[in-house]
Amino acid sequence: MDIAAQLAAVDRGIRTEDRDGAPSYVQTLSQTYPSPIDDVWDAVTTAERIARWFLPVEGDLRLGGRYQLEGNAGGEVLACAPPADGVASFRVSWGMGGPPSFLTVTLTAEGDVTRLELEHVAAVDSLPPGMWEQFGPAGTGMGWDSGLLGLSLHLSQPEFRDAFDAEAWMAGDEGKGFLRGSADAWAAAHVADGADPDAAQAAATATYGMYTGTVAGPDHSA
Description:
- It is a single chain.
- This protein is of the alpha+beta class.
- It is 42% helix and 31% strand.
- The protein is built from nine helices and eight strands.
- It has helices at residues 3-9, 37-45, 47-53, 131-135, 138-156, 158-162, 166-171, 173-192, 197-212, and strands at residues 11-19, 22-33, 57-59, 66-69, 74-84, 87-94, 101-110, 113-123.
- The longest helix has 20 residues, at 173-192.
- The radius of gyration is 17 Å and the shape is globular.
- The protein starts with a helix and ends in a 10-residue tail after the last helix.
């Protein structure tokens, strides 16, 4: 696959602003997919299809329902607006035992293609001490990049994606190249938000190391 093209297809941003009265990290990613909005909506809201490009999910994927991704986050569906007049969106809480963050996905029809924007909001005080300083936006951004890659393959090459061994691919040279490129892209987004370039690159490299098993994750037991 063309990992350089996939990395370049995603617009990334990070900023700090008040949300609901709390300083928060607001992380955004967007990509345009060559599929109509109804198909992309079905892919990101239907359990059977979510499992084909992201992770298996259980629960009630309706407004007010609760969901749980296998081995990952869970939460509540807080808002849901199916496609109408070329726009659709949903918002969920997103947590793994601690204070939740919040995820909003917005779809916009642009002719025969669909623009997807993902916004992930985490209150600064909700993060474990030292996590942002050590890993920066790549700590979550590299995971979202991997998800958008999976969705891209699912929508454009569904038979290939269904047979794709993501874990084995990530452990190989091509997968590591994708992770390195994602980490560097998040370092650039971090610098664009005003971060010190050396600190931003160090955080991205630490995250890459954590994803590839060369650097241990932070100890939050204290």
